[in-house]
Design goal:
336 residues; alpha/beta; 6-stranded mixed beta sheet; 5-stranded mixed beta barrel; 7 helices; globular
């Protein structure tokens, strides 16, 4: 039975009142054109510390952002109380487009990727030459994540007083990225920080490495005003250190322009989210040789055109070996 006639008038139609007595909801969201710009420095249980006009401001993510999460390094827009005084809280209403992303998964079978750092220019991979022993497979995985996310790699080798760096340098020499070799004495004296700082000027650098390699000790030397608790201990049975950095933190560099982002120590670096086809972009000398490859070529099969490209002298064979080693890293465990 029709409630209204064929031709109804809007004034005759009854509207159901809002039972809560508040304004009806709308899908139209405010643009917040007057929002202030900021940078996320750290995230702790839903609270985000942001740098706004040179002061630290505590903030929360606005509900309108949905499940989109802000991470350390994100450039954000904030509204509300931006004074930064105690017990005040601002609101993040927009996360700006990211220039780079460092991502990882818990393991290679985990479908959920985690963004560790946003907008970093460089990834400093810190590894000890001994105590604990270096883990090349973990380094490979960090390199793949860096290349995939748009970060330039920097290899920092610590504890050279316990073992020489020759083997690692031979393994990664063909990749042609910068590196620094330091000793425990240099870390304690600050000389290591001075040499590492030369590679950080004007850049946002994320530091990653498994526990016990001296990563946080190095960051403390770079930013002495905000020292983080370090481990200094390595388990004699497992050869691994204990996690002491529990959250990522961006710190302004001293004696140089730029930022150092200290991240929690990792024991695994899953690459389930990585598209292997993007890794080739980090090898500009090899990329032109892929034009003759069959569709969906893995670059490690009999018909791959890169073999002929290298045989014709267009690139160093060691570079092709390095590319294939990195592409195969998803099929290998870090400790292999």
């Amino acid at each position: 039975m029709r409630r209204y006639g064929k031709h109804t008038d809007e004034d005759d139609i009854r509207t159901r009142p809002n039972r809560k007595g508040n304004r009806p909801r709308t899908n139209i969201r405010p643009k917040h054109e007057d929002a202030a710009e900021g940078m996320v420095l750290t995230v702790d249980r839903g609270r985000l510390t942001c740098l706004v006009d040179g002061r630290a401001v505590m903030a929360m993510k606005a509900r309108e952002l949905g499940r989109k999460a802000a991470v350390v390094g994100d450039r954000v827009a904030l509204v509300g109380d931006l004074s930064g005084t105690k017990d005040t809280l601002a609101r993040i209403v927009r996360i700006e487009e990211r220039s780079s992303v460092l991502r990882r998964t818990a393991d290679d079978d985990d479908p959920y990727e985690r963004v560790v750092v946003a907008n970093a220019d460089q990834l400093a991979i810190v590894t000890a030459l001994a105590d604990p022993e270096p883990r090349p497979r973990l380094i490979d995985r960090c390199l793949v994540a860096a290349y995939d996310g748009g970060l330039e790699p920097l290899l920092v080798m610590t504890k050279s007083d316990l073992a020489p760096p020759d083997k690692l340098l031979e393994l990664y020499g063909a990749l042609d990225f910068p590196y620094v070799v330091t000793s425990r004495e240099e870390l304690e004296s600050g000389n290591a920080a001075d040499r590492v700082r030369e590679h950080l000027d004007g850049k946002i650098t994320a530091f990653v490495g498994h526990s016990g390699v001296g990563k946080t000790t190095l960051v403390n030397a770079l930013v002495p005003e905000d020292r983080r608790r370090t481990t200094g201990q390595v388990n004699a049975v497992t050869g691994r250190g204990r996690h002491t950095t529990t959250s990522a933190l961006a710190l302004p560099l001293q004696k140089a322009r730029g930022w150092a982002i200290d991240t929690p120590g990792v024991r695994s670096f899953g690459l389930a989210h990585i598209d292997p086809s993007r890794v080739i972009h980090a090898f500009p000398d090899l990329e032109p040789g892929t034009e003759g490859c069959p569709r969906a070529c893995s670059h490690d099969e009999p018909d791959c055109a890169l073999d002929d490209w290298v045989a014709e002298g267009h690139a160093d064979p060691a570079r092709l070996y390095s590319l294939r080693r990195l592409l195969a890293t998803r099929e290998r465990k870090e400790g292999d």
